Amino acid sequence: MGYVVAVCTSPKKGMRKKNIGTGRLVVDHGLEGDAHAGPWHRQVSLLALESVQKMRDAGLDVNPGDFAENITTVGLDLVSLPIGTKIAIGPDALGEVTQIGKECHTRCAIYHQAGDCVMPKEGIFVKVLRDGTVKVGDEVRVLDE
């Protein structure tokens, strides 16, 4: 089990996201108010704080949301979750892992500063199966099915 340490949105794609503390996950859409939300397989992105820490250890001043992730977690090995895994986020929301990592078509500012970026390798994506409000401090649980 892990926990939510940030809930982040941005008004446009290609921007770092800002921690808003609380957000609503909407079925077949994603995080309400986020530029990446929509009816596709990458509705919500998650990145572990442990991954952010790797970039901090490389000398970068980065924080949750700086990798354009919607939800930053701690205490859960996200990249080990197989596609199709169901995860409960907060008391009500339910998501299904649809993709591990992503292809980075354009090198972001983080890549140019550090020569690497963790989101393409360690970020995961989920589609929302059940609505729910998500806030900092909420549990993130892998469900057995």
Automatic annotation (TrEMBL):
Residue ranges constituting the MOSC domain according to the UniProt record: 17-143
Signal peptide interval: none
InterPro entries according to UniProt: MoCF_Sase_C, MOSC_domain, Pyrv_Knase-like_insert_dom_sf
Single GO term (MF): catalytic activity
Pfam family, one: MOSC
PANTHER family given in the database record: METAL-SULFUR CLUSTER BIOSYNTHESIS PROTEINS YUAD-RELATED, MOSC DOMAIN-CONTAINING PROTEIN
Protein name: MOSC domain-containing protein
